[in-house]
Automatic annotation (TrEMBL):
Signal peptide (UniProt feature, chain positions): none
PROSITE patterns with a match to the protein in the record: CYTC
Keyword Electron transport part of the UniProt annotation: yes
Protein name as annotated: Cytochrome c homolog
Alphabetized UniProt keyword annotations: Electron transport, Heme, Iron, Metal-binding, Transport
UniProt-recorded Gene Ontology molecular function terms: electron transfer activity; heme binding; metal ion binding
Pfam families according to UniProt: Cytochrom_C (PF00034)
Occurrences of domain Cytochrome c (ranges): 70-174
Organism: Agrobacterium genomosp. 2 str. CFBP 5494
Length: 191
C-alpha cells in the first residue's frame, strides 16, 4: 500500500475515534434526563366533525345576558385592537377590513366599497344574514371558526365579557343604535 493512503486512512480513523470519544464524554458530562412532566403542553382543539359556517358551540352565557351588564367604555378600549384594520366613524374609509359604523344588524358582507372574501359572501347568503348580536358574538370569538375561509386574520376575543363590552361599543357606533336583546329571551339559533 501507498504511504499516503495509509496516512489518509489513519487520519480518518483518528478523527472518528476523537469525535466518538468527545461525544461519549460530553453525553456523560451533560446528560439531561427526560422530564417527568412536560413544561408546556400544546393542546390542539379538536373539531366536532365539520360543523363550520356558524354552527359553532354556543358561548357559555347568552350574549343577551352579557350585554345587560356590558360596559361600552371598556369596549372602546377593546376596539383599539380592531383599529389597525377597521374604522368606526360615520363615513369612515375602509382599511384592510370594512368600516364598522352601524355594523349591528347590518346585512353581512354589504358595506359599500369593500371587497369581501368569497367565504364571507357565501356566509351572507346574498344579504339574508345580518350582523345580529349572536353572529357578532360568535364571529368575534373566533372569526375563522364561525366563517371558515374568511380573510380576517384576527384570532378573536376569547373572554366573553370583553366580547360583550366590544359589541356594546359597536352598538354605539350608529346614529340609531339597535335595541338591546331581551336578557330573558332564549338565544337565537345560528345557521
Amino acid at each position: 500500500m501507498n504511504s499516503y493512503v495509509n496516512m489518509g486512512v489513519g487520519a480518518f480513523l483518528g478523527t472518528v475515534f476523537v469525535l466518538m470519544s468527545v461525544s461519549i464524554a460530553s453525553e456523560g458530562i451533560f446528560h439531561a434526563p427526560a422530564p417527568e412532566k412536560e413544561g408546556y403542553a400544546i393542546v390542539a382543539e379538536e373539531s366536532s366533525g365539520g360543523t363550520g359556517g356558524g354552527e359553532a358551540a354556543a358561548a357559555a352565557t347568552p350574549i343577551a345576558q352579557l350585554l345587560a351588564s356590558a360596559d361600552a367604555a371598556k369596549g372602546e378600549a377593546v376596539f383599539k385592537k380592531c383599529t389597525s384594520c377597521h374604522t368606526g366613524e360615520s363615513g369612515g374609509a375602509n382599511k384592510v377590513g370594512p368600516n364598522l359604523f352601524d355594523v349591528v344588524n347590518r346585512p353581512i358582507a354589504s358595506h359599500e366599497g369593500f371587497s369581501y372574501s368569497a367565504a364571507m359572501k357565501d356566509f351572507s347568503k346574498g344579504g339574508a344574514e345580518h350582523w345580529d348580536y349572536d353572529h357578532l358574538n360568535y364571529f368575534l370569538e373566533a372569526p375563522k371558526k364561525h366563517v371558515p375561509g374568511t380573510a380576517m386574520g384576527f384570532a378573536g376575543v376569547k373572554k366573553e365579557t370583553e366580547r360583550a363590552d366590544l359589541i356594546a361599543y359597536l352598538r354605539t357606533l350608529s346614529a340609531n343604535p339597535a335595541p338591546l336583546p331581551d336578557p330573558a329571551a332564549a338565544p337565537a339559533p345560528t345557521n
